[in-house]
Amino acid sequence: MYEFKYHRPGTVRQAANLLVKNEDAKLIAGGHTLVPVMKQRLASPPHLVDLSHIEGLDTIEMKGRSLVIGATAKHAEVANSAVVGEAIPALAELAGLIGDPAVRHRGTIGGSLANNDPTADYPAAVLALGATIVTNKRRLKAEEYFQGLFSTALEADEIITKVMFPVPKKAAYVKFRNQASRYALVGVFVAKRPSDVRVAVTGAGSDGVFRVTAFEDALKKRFSHKVLDGIAVSADGLNSDLHGSAEYRAHLIGVLTRRAVEAANAKD
Length: 268
What we know:
alpha+beta; Uridine Diphospho-n-acetylenolpyruvylglucosamine Reductase, domain 2; Uridine Diphospho-n-acetylenolpyruvylglucosamine Reductase, domain 3; Enolase-like, domain 1; 3 domains; four-stranded antiparallel sheet; 22% strand
């Protein structure tokens, strides 16, 4: 690992200033993405800005009809939170499926969303639930936040501070995971919201997380897995690799969406 300078700011403003003053500085919270890359010498940031010691950045609470999760809240904290379990059980279940115990006790929701790995779980929840990414500068809707593989709308000195999730009427997340990495080969998050239904897919898209509008249109008319019979997902634009072909992933999207709808209905 290359030499670098480590910074431990006490506030988000201090962290943002460090990003401005130190060119090519990188943020770190749990470190489960950046540290392994640095160990492999695939990245050598001259400055690391640690967010994990900023007070209040890991809060989980309800504000009105929204579940608000601080950026440095760890996956295990989201999974085990009574607040999350009461408001959006599907989100708690999703967090409990991330990686292994070591990853869940160090990795953070903000770090996951900032990295925007195309096989990560949280992007599917953010897109399906219509969440808002709050930064030190502005608020970003899910649709404008995700911009492709490992790409987001975040600016160089912009820091995620929290995520606001509107509480849905029903929701569920089902994942078919790679047994070695536990990343989603395909993951589907289904949310029945007051005004619409959203189906978001992670792991399968060559351009990252995406919505399946054909499924959404059918489910909006009747929220039952049966209405999806006969509706196929195209393999165009889907990943194809040693873990599964694009056609296999397209098939999985259909299977997992049906299972997610059944799971969401079973929670009544």
